[in-house]
TrEMBL record:
Signal peptide: none annotated. This is Phosphatase 2C family protein. It comes from the Bacteria. The lineage of its organism: Bacteria, Bacillati, Actinomycetota, Actinomycetes, Mycobacteriales. InterPro entries: PPM-type-like_dom_sf (IPR036457), PPM-type_phosphatase-like_dom (IPR001932). Residues 6-125 form the PPM-type phosphatase domain.
Amino acid sequence: MTLVLRYAARSDRGLVRANNEDSVYAGARLLALADGMGGHAAGEVASQLVIAALAHLDDDEPGGDLLGKLEAAVRAGNSAIAAQVEMEPDLEGMGTTLTAILFDGNRSVWCTSVTPAAICCATVS
């Protein structure tokens, strides 16, 4: 059975915040939404860094270990946030949530929760 998804992506800053801390990616094989943590330093930067770390997963046919590839990309995003904070200490405390789906047409993997403490992943067939 082939997995077919229909989706759209849009983000709005709403009426409360001055800037939008969300970043979204919607491609042929990858859907991802990162919501920068409001009230913390540079949530919009954190969400952009995480999405940038995942975007390459959409470049090629994922094949193989989807869960491993997604988990590695999420860890790379978390490392990118830490590296940015090291270069710019005033960004200390920035962070983002993440919900992502990587699929190959027959099976999908989702991952949620990018924090310094946890990455939770699961396979859905």
